[in-house]
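Complex record, two chains
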Amino acid sequence: MFFSSASKPASTALVRYEPEPKRGLFGRLRGALEKWTFSQGGPDLEARLARLVAPQNEYGVDPFGLDLDFAKAAVAPVLWLYKSYFRVQTHGVQKVPQGPLLLVANHSGQLPLDAAMIGVSMLLEAEPPRVCRAMVEKWAPTLPYIAPFFARIGQVVGTPENCRRLLAAGETIMVFPEGVRGLNKPWEKRYRLQEFGLGFMRLALETRAPIVPVGVVGAEEQAVQLFDFKAAAKLIGFPALPITPTLLPLPLPVKYHLWFGDPMRFSGSPEDEDHELDKKVREVKAAVQALINRGLEERQGVFF
Amino acid sequence: MRDAVLITGISGNLGRSLTKLLHREERVMGIDRRPFAGKPKDLEVHQLDIRKKKVEDVFRRGEVKALIHMGIIHDPRLPATEHHSFNVLGTKAVLEYAAKHGVNKVVVLSSTAVYGPSPDNDNFLTEDAPLLGSSRFPEIRDLVEIDMYAQQYLWKHPEVETVILRPVHIVGPTVKNAPSNYLRLQRPWVLAGFDPMVQLIHEDDACRAMIAALKPGVRGVYNVVGPGELPLSAVMRELDRQPIAVPHFLARPLLDKLFQWRVASFPSPELDHLQFLCTVDGARAEKELGFRPLSTLRETIRSVLGEAPARVRQRPASPDEQGAA
């Protein structure tokens, strides 16, 4: 197993984690961030993080390059976004089962903060706590500093083979079948699901992993896209360059709601033709849309 | 009597390591155009270029039961025509002789470089992954060709048990290949903002994999991995290196010039290994060849410093290690 959560006594795990000397500017920054992580979460978070057990080698990484200690430091600002800025509220997170599974969510908000929020919810609120793996775009490994950062916090390039391997190891995978079509869509298309890719369904059928639909409500309003500066995006090799009222897609302090649906299990051959798979994909899409609709109905306002 | 294992490229550092491990259990013969310095009396080495007709005489005697082919040149300074001719024609010649003269086992040493580092790569490439190594690094197309030729040979000659081994970066106290030389630099270049996971294998473990491939009954293509994967930066820390971080867009043109002026000994496409993944899954070799590396990750990394594994020779712990423990 690459990554599993075992009920290890909290005390011993925390001893392992106790300060190794932090050297240099980065080391001190890491130390400070780790403290920030724990000061935000209190003893409860400490106990949950201690339950994460990665098969680290003597250099502190798992085979995919996840460095748990690094991740604990890196999560601090995201934790702040989750708790204080977006004040994320989850609905039905207890429906998320243990073992290998695919979280399938809508993608929105110009910056993929929805992925980060779902990730933190799995760490803070799912049982057992886990590090969720998002399948990142293939251009991420070409971006300096971003590439190793993603790898150290457990994010993996979304090739089918990587996904298969992680599911076989019992991990939780996060998938956005809309991809950038959903992330960088204009304001008038908000909360309307874009075309879904089929790849995740093939993997679900092949590995028999359940799918948990997730509806993210709030992220659409965090940054309103006025237009997509496609020419400039192409020039710098980005999939999109959304221009928002704040020019850069700085997120507004909207309130996030994460709605988790019941696990869906599918059977059939992963080698089926696209139109056969499409039927199943549409079921998932409908489930996600239903969660979004319910979330929109029930929310009191965009910012609170 | 048909009882000898014939090794091409036996006088190289890896060939010598292999001979050291193998000659206790098997009768070893070798072919190399370089002399075998300090050759033991019982070792038969034919000083020949593998492209020469006389090589066939070694096979004709009917003593060779297995061929381990690692007589492959990797010198980036040699003109492309020279190493292409030596590597590809030489490989074809010895493999044909093996089939013609009843050798039952052929082991070809390829490498994971044939897959090539790329941002699109799976984290663990399996043996079916396409061989794209030469698309960004045309100078290694002969290595890809050898691998492809050996695969073709595997199908064409069902009577020969052909094994193609693709080990990860081989490092060790004696080998002088690109990864070992790179790790021996006190201030090696790294690419700013990149820190890919890397896999290394100790030269002795690579030799053990070749010996494991001699096992009767096995044929096919196998990735061969060492004791695990770790970020390049962790390798640098282990070796106490002070790497120089060069922005990737400057590094390539700069290294091209330095290579041309003979200041640097690495061609610029090698930089891809410092930027992208080229890591593989070694499960098939573990399952079918029963191969597992003996050196630990730490021993493997530190072997480039010329340190023997602790179980062979006890190394006194240095003061700072004692402090850490």
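Note: Confidence is low (pLDDT under 50) at residues 1-19 of chain A.
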